[in-house]
Amino acid sequence: LRQYVRPIGQSDPKVVISYLQLIKDRAVRMRAITDFVLEIRDYDSLVGVILPNGQHKGGCLAQLMPKAEVQEIISLAASDAEQQGKFMDALRLYDLLFEHPILTVR
């Protein structure tokens, strides 16, 4: 399923998220969506942005999934980005969670 929807990702990530939500196993579904978020790196449209007034404007994940699952995906993506040495991505994702951990540079 992931290979089928990957080419669509750049043009319409919302469609890809809708397809990935069809995966029955929750752990596999959450991992697939997290991997997609990190692969596409279009964080504004997928997970949202922090507005100048400090409010979080959700992305398409917030439109399609429960808030708890969106937060879990953002947290997983931030942790994965940190482990992969993508510190700017990790900071941006942690910022969306209003979490500011100390990142370790290896």
What features would you describe in this structure?
The chain is mainly alpha-helical and 106 residues long. Helices cover 59% and strands 4% of the residues. The protein has 7 helices and 2 strands; from the N terminus they run ααααββααα. Strands 1-2 form a two-stranded antiparallel ribbon. The longest helix has 17 residues, at 67-83. It starts with a helix and ends in a 10-residue tail after the last helix. The model has no long low-confidence stretch (mean pLDDT 84).
SSE series = HHHHEEHHH
State the low-pLDDT regions, or none.
Answer: none
Number of helices: 7
Q: How would you sum up the major sheet? A: 2 strands, antiparallel
What Rg do the Cα atoms give? 13 Å
Instruction: Assign a percent range to the helix content.
Output: 55-70%
Name the descriptors.
106 residues, mainly alpha, two-stranded antiparallel sheet
Characterize this entry briefly:
The chain is mainly alpha-helical.
Summarize the helices and strands and which ones pair or pack:
Layout: H1 2-5, H2 13-20, H3 26-40, H4 43-46, E1 49-50, E2 56-57, H5 60-64, H6 67-83, H7 87-96
Antiparallel strand pairs: 1-2
